[in-house]
Amino acid sequence: MPRSKRLLASIHDVGPGSFTAVEQLIDLFEQRLGERRFAMLVVPDHWGNHPLRDARAFQTRLRAWADEGIEMFVHGWYHRDTATHHGAASFKARHMTAGEGEFLGLDTATALQRMRDGKALIEDIIGRPAAGFIAPAWLYGEGAMAALRQAGFALAEDHWKVWDARTDAVLAKGPVITWASRSRARTASSLAFAALARGALGALPCVRLAVHPGDTTKAALLASIDATLARFVRSHRPGRYADLLA
C-alpha cells in the first residue's frame, strides 16, 4: 500500500568540525531510508571555531551532498548563545539548551544580518537556494521571528511545527523526535521519549526526526535512532521539507 504520510529526517550541526560524525549519521540514514532523501542543517562557523568559509575541502563535500539531493538549511551562524536573557527566555536558555540558543536573544537587525550572511555563504557553496532557516536549538526570540519574515527563506521549523517563513502558514504539526547526549539524565529522557514516539506518533501525517553529531558518541542513542527510523519507514515515506510547499 502506498505510504501517503511523510517522514522528514535531518542531521543538525553540520560543519567542518563535525565531518566524521556526519558521515556516520549519513550511513545510518541511508541504511534505513534507502536514499539521500533527508536534510542537513549547516552552521557557518560553529562556536567561532570552525569557519565554513575557510574550509575548502568541506565546501566541496557539502556541494556534492546537495547535488545528490540532500536539502540544506541555514542553521544559525555561530550556534552559540551569548545574549543575556530575562523572563521566559531565561528559562528556555537554561533548560532547553546548553548555551546554544543563538537566536533566542538577538535583536532584529543582528538576527537578519546573520540570516542573510548565512544564506549567501551556503547558497554560494551549494549552487542553489537553501531550503530554509532553522534556529539553533529550535529557539527563536521576537527579533529572530521578525527577521525571518524579511530574510527570504521559504521554510522554518521549531520543536512543534514547520511553517512557511514568508507567510507564517503552518505546514506540519507535531513534536520533533530528537536525542540528547550531554548528560545521563537527558540521554535517558530522550531514549524514553523516542520509545514513546514510536508507539504514539504513527498516526501523524508528518513525522520529524532530528539527529546531532553528539549522538554518535553513545551506542544506546544510535540504537534508538535506528529503531525509530525502522519504525517510521514502514508507515511514512521519506520526503523533503520542500514537499510541504507543493
UniProtKB/TrEMBL annotation:
Pfam families: DUF2334
InterPro entries, A to Z: DUF2334 (IPR018763), Glyco_hydro/deAcase_b/a-brl (IPR011330)
CDD domains: CE4_u10
Signal peptide as annotated in the record: none
The protein's name in its UniProt record: Polysaccharide deacetylase family protein
Organism the protein comes from: Novosphingobium organovorum
Organismal lineage: Bacteria, Pseudomonadati, Pseudomonadota, Alphaproteobacteria, Sphingomonadales
